[in-house]
Description:
Structural class: alpha+beta
Order of helices and strands: EHEEHEEHEEHEEH
Number of strands: 9
Oligomer: single chain
Number of domains: 2
CATH class of the largest domain: Alpha Beta
CATH topology of the largest domain: Alpha-Beta Plaits
Radius of gyration: 19 Å
Amino acid sequence: MSITPTALSNQPAHHILSVLVQNRPGVLARVAGLFARRGYNIFSLAVAPTEDPDLSRITIVVDVESAPLEQIVKQLFKLVDVVKISELDPRRSVERELMIATVRIAAEERGQVVELTNIFEGKILAVGVEAITVSLEGSPEKLDDFEELLRGYGIVELQRTGRVALPKLDKEARLRAVRGKAS
């Protein structure tokens, strides 16, 4: 397993772990409990069923400054319901996140937030008398940039899903996927 920080050196060192687990009640609580007991910091966590209804994928972005990655992986493998753990290299994976934000905005400035949302390829979800709610899907860096620009207008509420990630397909797998759709 390679140990390469996924963030720039001036930011905390993060790694993305894709943990395949049995789709059973309490699994997420056991994983989160392991991190809490060991004092490991979770930067981001997302979980959902996979294409196999018996399995779920937990995507964990972990702060490796709180514990060595090898130790985290060893502790995760001790959990009965863990099937497979993969570290995802950001250069060889696809990462996405969703953000929903409500921005307090005067009517005369609303067009600026709408234009900003359109530039970032986001969506307007709701418009009120004093606020607007927008959503954006994309890479964590894209969401960071959008959030920073929205802060100038006054964010009332903001929620981000946490990262989800999968390995990029190699060239042959991409071609097979395209050929399969054409059939």
